[in-house]
Design a protein that fits this description.
The complex is a heterodimer of chains A (about 260) and B (about 270).
Chain A lengths: L3 E12 L2 E12 L3 E6 L5 H9 L6 E6 L2 E2 H4 L7 E4 L11 H11 L5 H11 L15 H12 L6 E5 L7 H18 L2 E6 L2 H7 L2 E6 L2 E6 L1 H7 L5 H24 L1
Parallel strand pairs in A: 3-8, 3-9, 6-7, 7-8
Antiparallel strand pairs in A: 1-2, 1-4, 4-5, 9-10
Helix pairs in contact in A: 3-4
Chain B lengths: L6 H16 L2 H28 L1 H5 L3 H28 L3 H6 L4 H31 L8 H28 L4 H6 L19 H7 L3 H15 L4 H32 L8
Classes of the chains: A alpha/beta (about 260), B mainly alpha (about 270).
Chain lengths: ~260, ~270
């Protein structure tokens, strides 16, 4: 059995003349918690959507669990799951109804038992009978995570899992993700622009800018290499360095 | 590996749409509201025409049968396109298609829920017509099943074409889901024979299955015979239309994946 869960090779996505993802290559090992960092529009969400087969790449290859996602994504979709603030759950259905539908779509064997388990793990039991639209942002995020964990995925793709959450709720979500990953061994790819989050739970980090991976390594390795104290400072260094490089390149092109 | 077609996943999606219906009494009421209002109005028109029009007097149920069958077509189309639109309003397509759900399973679930909604809406109106006007569309007998099936399938075909437009152009195309079907109403010969239309328009009318159904209905009511040729023409045309509708939907679904539309749709 291969230890590489995700293998991406020269992946690109262009929307007309706009290059959203530009020749990106990376691998994610089984059991890793990999952070995909970047500013807004860096290409994180597009990369995750391509890993799920929701977006067809312009070029490049994606292999997940050894299967070609472009050709055989249905072989592996049942072993994956995801959550994203850009995709919602039906607002008029209750939490229980939403989770039941997704449990059945993923072929969960004992739906009631799984719902009870998630109700306890993610503290959604107290509002499981309420319509999704009546929940607070924090409650919706927890339900989104419950949906993402409904099939006990071997690979979990999370797009900005703590975006727009208050510090307390965000902290609880991070703690849950850390303990869940430690106990289940799930491979996690996490797109975020929250450096504290990445530093706290990720084993590997890739920094994206304008559709490219501009640096990668372990959080501690990157902090040491840039001679900084936090991932936030590293991130700012990387962004400014690439900004300067681009400015120099434009000047050279003009002169 | 998940099978290419799973009844379990189709059932999960049907359950999702039943939850939606169950959670809102106005939605349930809406299913029967318009067919019933139409039936009541055309019931009174029939009562008036029975004494003022020899044509209607000859077959008193012709207008009520027509309006109920027209609603089969309309409800079947809405049952596909409006239910699909619910997924777009909910911004749920990304979650659905990141799961093992396949497009053909979504299509199957839309067909099932459309049949259910059509039976609920038109069935209620048809049953109410019995005590209100002493008219039962069920007196058409076995041919009714043929008319119903043909109109249902044609409604599905149009519904999938509209779903394709919704997926491609977003909810800006929403109004089409409600009004597109009315473009074919004048040439379907719902309340009058196709021969009423100008000659050039008759050729257009004979290119759509609903014209054959309504002519077939009049053959049963006025001549007390089931016209097999009209029925078969409708079946052949429907097979083509449904295939085209579903192929267009799959084609647009492919375009949606290329353009990243599955993550962008919404209000």
């Amino acid at each position: 059995m291969t230890d590489i869960v995700i293998d991406v090779n020269r992946l690109s996505k262009a929307y007309g003349s706009v290059l959203a993802v530009d020749e990106v290559s990376f691998r994610v090992q089984r059991g890793a918690v990999c952070g995909l960092l970047g500013t807004n529009g860096a290409g994180k969400t597009t990369t995750i959507a391509m890993l799920l087969g929701l977006i067809v790449p312009t070029s490049g290859q994606i292999t997940v669990f050894g299967e070609d996602i472009l050709r055989d994504r249905y072989r592996v979709l049942g072993r994956m799951n995801f959550s994203s603030p850009y995709v919602d759950l039906p607002q008029r259905l209750t939490v229980e109804e939403n989770l039941t539908v997704y449990a059945r779509l993923y072929g969960v064997r004992n739906v009631d038992k799984r719902l009870r388990q998630l109700g306890v793990d993610l503290e959604v039991a107290s509002f499981i009978k309420r319509p999704f639209r009546t929940l607070s942002a924090g409650q919706k995020t927890r339900v989104g995570l419950a949906k993402a964990l409904i099939n006990e995925p071997e690979l979990l793709l999370l797009d900005e899992p703590t975006a727009s959450l208050d510090p307390d709720t965000a902290d609880r979500v991070r703690s849950f993700l850390s303990s869940y990953q430690a106990s289940s061994g799930t491979t996690l790819l996490l797109a975020s622009h929250n450096m504290t989050e990445v530093e706290r739970i990720c084993t590997d980090v890739m920094i994206m800018r304008a559709g490219r991976i501009v640096d990668q390594g372990t959080p501690q390795g990157l902090i040491a290499r840039y001679g900084r104290g936090t991932m936030e400072e590293v991130f700012l260094d990387v962004m400014r360095e690439t900004n300067d490089r681009e400015t120099d390149r434009r000047r050279a092109a003009l002169s | 590996m998940s099978p290419a077609f799973s009844v379990r996943r189709v059932a999960a999606m049907v359950l999702r749409y039943l939850y939606l219906l169950r959670g809102s009494w106005p939605r349930i009421l809406e299913q029967a509201y318009w067919p019933t209002v139409q039936m009541i109005m055309w019931g009174f028109i029939t009562q008036f025409f029975v004494t003022n029009s020899s044509w209607v007097a000859h077959a008193a149920g012709v207008l009520l049968s027509a309006v109920l069958l027209w609603d089969v077509l309309f409800r079947a189309q809405l049952g596909v396109s409006v239910v699909f639109m619910e997924e777009m309003f909910a911004r749920n397509l990304g979650h659905l298609f990141a799961s093992p759900l396949r497009p053909q399973e979504l299509v199957a679930s839309l067909l099932v829920i459309s049949l259910f909604r059509t039976l609920l809406g038109v069935g209620t109106a048809a049953l109410l017509a019995i005590p209100l006007y002493r008219y039962s569309i069920f007196d058409l007998g076995l041919p009714l099943l043929g008319f119903f099936t043909n109109l249902l399938v044609f409604g599905w075909a149009i519904g999938f074409l509209i779903c394709g437009l919704l997926l491609r152009y977003g909810l800006g195309a929403e109004s089409l889901a409600w009004v597109a079907i009315f473009a074919i109403a004048p040439i379907s010969g719902i309340y009058y024979p196709i021969s009423t239309l100008p000659h050039w328009l008759q050729s257009v009318a004979w290119a759509i299955p609903s014209s054959y159904v309504f002519e077939g209905m009049r053959a049963v009511l006025f001549e007390h015979r089931f016209d097999r040729e009209l029925f078969l023409n409708a079946v052949v045309l429907n097979s083509v239309y449904l295939a085209v509708g579903i192929i267009v939907f799959f084609w647009v679904f492919r375009i949606a994946r290329v353009r990243g539309l599955l993550l962008q749709v919404g209000e």
